[in-house]
Amino acid sequence: MVEAVRKRPIRLWVAVVINVLVGLISLGFLAFLVTSARVPAALHPSVTTLAWAVCTAGFLIVASIVALLGKPYGRYIMLLAAVVFYGALIAQNVVALNGPYAALGQGAGAKLAANLVRTSLELAINLWALLSLKTRKYFNGAAVAPNHSFQRTRCARR
User: Fold this and answer.
1) C-alpha span between 49 and 26 (Å, rounded)
2) Which residue, 10, 8, 25, 24, is CA-closest to 125?
């Protein structure tokens, strides 16, 4: 009997890569926002806002890496991190869309709507990757056996 190799699902890789890249981009933008002389002082985030943003982005990165390592609790932590990070962005975009976004400039409504859709898709990718049967088997430690349906049907005909 050949033992199947425990392999990470590709959907998990996709979600982890997206989360790590988005988290790193967020941290990079926050560093730019705080350190750049080109940003007016009125636009600098408060200490609380900065701490929240750094913690959620860092949590998203760390939780994604823990999930990729295959820890049994990793998918739930990654799911929590994705819901917190992307959920906060979705809520922020919904509030901005419902407010007077005309003050933000021409085309701000379309940009906010596009950002809302993109963020919702990122959250949906995480849900798809972390709640699927393949991923559940991976995190439960069950090896995903190859599909031998062709051989089964061929043997059944004999």
Assistant:
1) 13
2) 10
